[in-house]
Design goal:
It comes from Shewanella algidipiscicola. Keywords: Cell cycle, Cell division, Periplasm, Signal. Belongs to the CpoB family. Pfam families: TolA_bind_tri, TPR_16, TPR_6. The chain is mainly α. Among the domains are: 61 residues, no CATH class; 65 residues, Tetratricopeptide repeat domain (Serine Threonine Protein Phosphatase 5, Tetratricopeptide repeat). Helix content is 81%, strand content 0%. The chain has 9 helices and no strands. The longest helix has 73 residues. It starts with a helix and ends with a helix.
């Protein structure tokens, strides 16, 4: 009896073992393929995220460069305005000094009168630009001043003003002549670097990139670390 019961128990145990085998992975690759596919999806997602991040970084970098260029340009323009203001203050101071000398009625009255006429003529032309905003009228005013006082201490600035006014009107041939006068005849003028930049811009507008590059490089070489050199560098990079 005990032997029969034991035999029955053994047979039942074997049956259960046969009916419920332990789970094993499919050696053909079922579960393994799922893991590989999942890893591939994760890798692709990571690569896509990295690519998107790089695109954002590139976009941000370009925006920074654009903003830097805009800042340089604005800095140059502000510097130009400040220079014109300083020049105007100097002109007014010289005019006041000339008037004071004229009122003394010394033996050199004729020379003082000549100096007063020179300063007053220049101041009148400048005021047409800065105060009255009569740009078309300022062009002949500066031309007359340059013709009458070609060796004046204001001659370099007068030529630069004339060149700028003509440049704004798109009269590039005459503007080139005015800026070129500053470059060649007034090498110590603080307007020379700016004049070279404007000559480069005119050449660039006329699709003469080789000449434009030459002017910009000259500014960078001769006026390093100046506002004019920064603008020249920016313009050069855009060609």
């Amino acid at each position: 009896m005990k032997h029969a019961v034991l035999t029955a128990a053994i047979l039942m145990s074997v049956g259960v073992a046969v009916a419920a085998p332990a789970p094993v992975e499919d050696i053909a690759g079922g579960a393994s393929n799922d893991r590989v596919a999942r890893l591939e999806r994760m890798l692709k997602a990571k690569q896509a995220a990295e690519f998107e991040t790089q695109q954002r970084l590139d976009t941000l970098q370009q925006e920074v460069l654009d903003l830097r260029g805009l800042t340089e340009q604005q800095s140059y323009q502000i510097n130009q305005i400040l220079q014109r203001q300083r020049q105007l203050y100097d002109d007014i101071a010289k005019l006041s000094s000339a008037k004071s000398v004229a009122n003394t009625a010394t033996p050199v009255a004729s020379e003082t009168t000549s100096s007063l006429g020179e300063t007053a003529s220049y101041e009148q032309a400048v005021n047409l630009v800065l105060k009255q905003r009569q740009y078309d009228e300022a062009i002949p005013a500066f031309r007359n001043f340059i013709k009458q006082y070609p060796s004046s201490t204001y001659a370099a600035n007068a030529n630069y003003w004339l060149g700028q006014l003509l440049y704004n009107k798109g009269e590039f041939a005459e503007a080139t002549q005015a800026f070129d006068t500053v470059v060649k005849q007034f090498k110590d003028s603080n307007k020379r670097g700016d004049s070279l930049v404007k000559l480069g811009m005119i050449a660039q507008k006329q699709s003469d990139n080789a000449t434009a590059k030459r002017y910009y490089q000259q500014v960078i070489n001769e006026y390093a670390n100046s506002a004019a050199a920064r603008i020249a560098t920016q313009q050069l990079a855009g060609i």
